[in-house]
TrEMBL record:
InterPro entries: HDACs (IPR000286), His_deacetylse_dom (IPR023801), His_deacetylse_dom_sf (IPR037138), Ureohydrolase_dom_sf (IPR023696)
UniProt protein name: Histone deacetylase family protein
Similarity annotation: Belongs to the histone deacetylase family.
CDD domains documented for this protein: HDAC_classII_2 (cd11599)
Alphabetical list of SUPFAM superfamilies matching this protein: Arginase/deacetylase
Coiled coil: none
GO MF: histone deacetylase activity
Length: 321
């Protein structure tokens, strides 16, 4: 009798990459992208007992030379100056939903730092896969602009870093946040060796979307009211065939949980079960195509209860054999 041998990497832990920088640039505005989001995740991680089984890594800021793989140098400089209160620099960030405060630059650099560390971990084999619990999110940040609570594009830097540092020829970025990852699309469109797949409610914020989509971008817009079966259709009919054909050596997830039915910011109707399904299918693809190398990065998710439950379902699935 022969039994299939599990690959050695499958015994490695799931990494939980985070940074302790709590920042609230706009406490009076009661913004939905709030420090309470991270508290909700931490609390659920503890109560669920998952905390004991993940490899927790506290991350420092990414090197500036890594951040500029995806962003213009003068934009990164302006963000730093704006965080220090420089009036001229602050004028560049005059948006109601994307306020810069004293802690913004440090937290944004550390969010990228977490993704970079997670990419290193799945290639150096200290973790089999990873979840980056980070604020601020990143997928609306373009090459030289902030937007939608995002300042630096965590996944776009991660993808370009994997190519630069680890010599990876093909990286896939998969975005299931309810909002279109317009910043990621802007940075990665037309880039060699990178594929960007994004499902999102449409029409909805942001109104930026490249039409027709560039060759390395797959857009899967969903109508308001779409639920699990429609998400499943996108994954099975659009994402998996593209992945099988592209054969990525690393998969990055832009993991927003704001398509949840309890979210008021959008009108999709996903549930915890759908996030577990999506995670499982991405893990299966990663196991078949790239020795399980999957790095998931938190984007949106603003209803604190459903965010905490959905991330738990996601993390629990990532930890399964
Ligand atoms: Zn979102």
């Amino acid at each position: 009798m022969t039994t299939a041998q599990a690959p050695a990497w499958s015994g490695l832990p799931t990494g939980y990459f985070t940074h302790g920088r709590i920042y609230d640039p706009n406490p009076l505005a009661n913004a939905p992208e709030s420090p309470e989001r991270m508290e909700a995740l931490e609390s659920r991680l503890f109560v669920s007992g998952l905390e004991d089984f993940v490899e927790r890594v506290e991350c420092g800021p990414a090197p500036r030379g890594v951040v500029t793989l995806a962003h213009d140098e003068d934009y990164v400089e302006a963000l730093e100056k704006a965080s220090q209160g420089d009036k001229e620099a602050l004028a560049r960030f005059e948006m109601t939903d994307t306020k810069v405060g004293p802690g913004t630059f440090d937290a944004a650099m550390r969010s990228v730092g977490a993704v970079v560390a997670a990419v290193d971990a799945v290639f150096s084999r200290t973790c089999r896969n990873a979840f980056c619990a980070v604020r601020p999110p990143g997928h609306h940040a373009g090459r030289a602009r902030a937007g939608g609570f995002c300042f630096l594009n965590n996944v776009a830097v991660g993808a370009l870093y994997a190519r630069a540092r680890w010599g990876v020829e093909r990286v896939a970025v998969l975005d299931f946040d309810v909002h279109h990852g317009d910043g990621t699309e802007e940075i990665l469109a037309g880039r060699e060796g990178v594929k960007f797949l994004s499902l999102f409610q449409w029409p909805l914020f942001p109104d930026r979307r490249i039409v027709p989509a560039p060759e390395n971008v797959v857009q899967s817009p969903l109508e308001a009211g779409a639920a699990g079966p429609e998400i499943e259709r996108v994954v099975e009919n659009e994402w998996l065939p593209v992945l099988a054909d592209f054969r990525p050596q690393l998969m990055l997830l832009s993991a927003g949980f704001d398509a949840h039915v309890e979210e008021t910011m959008a009108q999709l109707k996903a549930a915890e079960r759908d996030y577990a399904y999506l995670t499982r299918r991405m893990m299966d693809a990663a196991a078949a195509l790239c020795e399980g190398r999957l790095v998931s990065v938190l984007e949106g998710g603003y209803s604190l209860r459903s965010l905490a439950r959905s991330v738990t379902a996601h993390l629990q699935t990532l930890m399964r054999p």
